[in-house]
Design brief:
single chain; alpha+beta; 2 domains; 7-stranded antiparallel beta sheet; 4-stranded antiparallel beta sheet
Amino acid sequence: MSRSLIRRGIRAAVFAATSGLLSSPQAARAADAVTIVPGTLTQGAVKPSLTGGSYANESANLGDWPLNTGGSSSDTFAISFENPDFNGNSFGGTPNTMVAFGNGGGVTLKFAAPITPIAGEKDLGIFTAQAILGGSGSYGLNGNMEAAILVSANGSAWYTLNGALVTSPTTYTSTAYSLNAPTMAYNYGTGAIAWHDGAGTSAANLNALAVADYTTPMPNDNLFNGTGTSAQRSALTTDASASDYAAIFGDSGGGNWFDISGSGLSQVDYVRLNGDANDPSSGGVRLDAVFANAAAVPEPTTISLLALSAMTLLKRRRRLA
């Protein structure tokens, strides 16, 4: 084979490899979280315990992944159905890891890396600190949490998740979404284990569990954001079926996930959340974290290393020509 044909073959292989990395949903990916855009957080109407202080701090770390809220000398309270994250509490929770907003308030968030929306895939994950009461299955913190969700590529032009341009993004509340799915720190395997461990268990028991995947959507959030009833949610406290747990959570850390491909944007850098004026009974949204689906965020390091290796190989071949 001639050297020119060898060079052409190498170039074709390099193009195919790097193109596949850039376009394939199965390519190597990276986690992606948000920071608050300075000057954009307004609390609006929230209950007194969430007003001001650490819940109004724009430096809050919305990319943390809490596993527990501390505990006694013998037990650790893991994040689960009944035991959500807290913003610096008596159990030893870390301060400034969440913010709160409600009716008339909201916040703008910027991703560390752009999200590339994929049709039919839930790429935006919003984690709230919601709790489920075991005896009733009702929402234990703030009642129903809702917010309007807008997305933008540049922070100036804002769109709904259905692709409508919004001219007043800081006050838009026409379409709001429920944000009641709990955060699960570990892959508990069954609802009964999640409830038991969340109520307090040994560090050894928790260490035997895999940490949940916060960059993967839960398979089905209907119990929390759909037609699920309080009785059905309460039944999780004694549900020992691994298949039931897998159908709801899989190995996901829970959260509220949204398909943003309908926005019409080729990439999303910013998210705007506004408290829902149609739900004044809520005590406000306790926003704990926001992550992108790992499948929608290409891993830049992997792409760069492959490209570098390919260029090095081409240079070596040129020396042989």
